Amino acid sequence: MVTTEAWGVAVVSRRAARLFRGGPQGLVEFAVVRDDLHRRHAQGGWSQARFQRGIEGQVAVHVRHVAERLLRAHQRRSFEQLIFVASSELWPVVEASLHRDLRDRVAGVIERDLGAAATEQIMQAISPVIDRTEAARERVLIDRVEEGLRTGGAAAAGLDEVLAMLEQNRVEVLLVPDGADLAAGLCPHCARLFASAEANALMTVHR
User: Fold this and answer.
1) What is the domain count for the chain?
2) What CA–CA distances, in Å, run from 3 to 7, 26, 81, 134?
3) In Å, what is the CA distance from 139 to each residue of 4, 134, 198?
4) Is 202 strand, coil or helix?
């Protein structure tokens, strides 16, 4: 699974954005980006149309500020996946402003107005995206293990084989089934790993 703090969430409107970091266990808001936009011109005709184009230009600048702030956060501590909450009209502007490193991590876009929502409401809205993404990632990892075991490739299953891979520092991914009751430790005399578990309780993809 993606680690509990590796999800980034951006709730973006035309005037403000709220940025979060977290995962399935919850979110923490780490930044708010606000940009003042002039209100819509009261007059009609060409003056109003020109003024509206100016507003859209300011929205684009605001979105770039959001994208830049998100990229700085990613460069300090990487996001593995990103979720955006934005209107269908605003999302293309947001997507065009994202650095490729961020765009490649987008797991979902939720078209809702949650700018003033409580963190718990935002968490509820994004949970289906997190669940779907992590289930798909888990399925890919299991398929890799099953293929490796079937072909004699870079995979191991069973307590003894997995512990051997761990001792050799060759483990890339360690899979533990739900409900597994595992206890492990390091022998103070021989420095070997030992554990108490069912023989098939661990699977690994190794290098």
Assistant:
1) 2
2) 8, 12, 10, 10
3) 19, 9, 22
4) coil
Residue 34 β-bridge partners: 16
Placement of tokens 């969430």 in the chain: 9
> What is the pairing mode between strands 183-186 and 193-196?
antiparallel
The per-residue DSSP string of 33-74 comes to EE---PPPPSS-HHHHHHHHHHHHHHHHHHHHHHHHHHHHHH
Residue 127 and residue 162 share a domain: no
Expressed as residue numbers, the domain containing 59 is 7-137
Q: DSSP state, 159?
A: H
Residues 12, 114: Cα–Cα separation, whole Å = 8
pLDDT in tens, 167-191: 778 888 777 777 766 666 666 777 6
Counted residue by residue, the chain has a size of 207
Residues 40 and 132 in one domain: yes
Token pair belonging to 162:
């997995």
pTM recorded for the entire structure? 0.71
What is the β-pairing status of strands 7-12 and 81-85?
parallel
